[in-house]
Every structure is written in C-alpha cells, then in structure tokens.
TrEMBL record:
Keywords: Acyltransferase, Transferase. It comes from the Bacteria. This is Acyltransferase. Its EC number is 2.3.1.-. It comes from Luteimonas rhizosphaericola. PANTHER family: LIPOPOLYSACCHARIDE BIOSYNTHESIS O-ACETYL TRANSFERASE WBBJ-RELATED, SIALIC ACID SYNTHASE-RELATED. Coiled coil: none annotated.
Length: 175
C-alpha cells in the first residue's frame, strides 16, 4: 500500500500536534487531547481521553458520547474503529484493526502487506485492564470483557467474556 503526500503530511501534523498534548495530565490534558483529536478523527463526542493514549490512523476512528479512554490505551483506526456511547476502556487496552500477511515464507513479512477489518464496540461496553481486541471484531451492547482478555471473535450483546482467546462465560442480568 502506498500513501499520498497529503496522507503523509496529515499524519505528520497529527503526530506532531498530538505528541505535544499526549502526556499532559488531566483535566487540562483531556481537553487538549480532545481538541487535537477533533481535527483528525472521523468523529469524537467525548473528551475523557487520558494521558498516554496512542492514536494511529485517526481518520478511521469514531468515538461516541460519555466514553472514557484511560491511560496507555492504543487505538488503531487503519481498518476502522468505532466506540459506541457510554463505553469504558481501562488502562493498557489495545484495539488493533490491522494484521500482517505472512502466508508466503519466501517473502519478508513486511513486504506482504496488511489485512484490515473494522472493530466495533457497541454502546455500554466495558473493557477491563489490558484487553486486546483484534481486527474484524464486533463486541455487542452492554458487554463486559475481563482484564487481560484477547478478543478474536464477535461477542453477542450483554456477554461477560474472559480468557485468551476470550470466551463468553456469562450473560449480564442472568440469575
């Protein structure tokens, strides 16, 4: 995949401006990060983006209302990333919407390109500390993902999931 000069310039502007505000402590830092991200992301409706959050390919990212994204989170918008309203993202989570192709053992992996797929968190999802969500995954409304889980497949609404890979172990509201 090749990028246009405009894309490189936009990325340079994003990384430069965001780099200036990435580690400013809250609440001032939250407001600064919101204002910078507002220039680059597809859509942002929440200002609680804590210090140390890394944002790649912001043009593919949509963030809903009343979302909190805590320290050290990695957001990758290459394949698309949508975070619905009222979501909580604990520190150290990663949302990786791309993957390397590695099928040809005679070609270096970096030359084989990437696979991209959108990640969707529906409304009211809570991702515990250190959760990893991989490309092409949709997490249903109201789901809770336990700390350290790696989500590799879609999860239905109101799931309680944990493990590597994440498996549904319960349903919210079930007695």
């Amino acid at each position: 995949m090749t990028y246009s000069k405009a894309a490189y310039l936009r990325a340079a502007a994003h990384f430069t401006l965001y780099g200036l505000v990435k580690y400013i402590p809250p609440p001032l830092g939250d407001a600064c990060r919101f204002l910078v991200l507002k220039l680059f992301v597809a859509e942002i409706r929440s200002w609680k983006i804590k210090d140390g959050v890394t944002v790649w390919f912001p043009e593919g990212i949509r963030i809903g209302r009343h979302v909190t994204i805590n320290e050290g989170v990695f957001l990758d918008g290459f394949g698309g990333l949508t975070i619905g309203d009222n979501c909580r993202i604990a520190h150290g989570c990663s949302f990786i919407s791309e993957d390397h192709v590695f099928s040809d053992p005679d070609t270096p992996i970096w030359r084989q390109g990437k696979l991209a797929g959108p990640i969707v968190l529906e409304d009211d999802v809570w991702c515990g500390c250190g959760v990893k969500v991989l490309r092409g995954v949709s997490i249903g409304k109201g789901s809770v993902i336990a700390a350290g889980a790696v989500v590799t497949r879609d999860l239905p609404p109101y799931s309680i999931a944990m493990g590597v890979p994440a498996k549904v172990v319960g349903v919210r509201g079930a007695a």
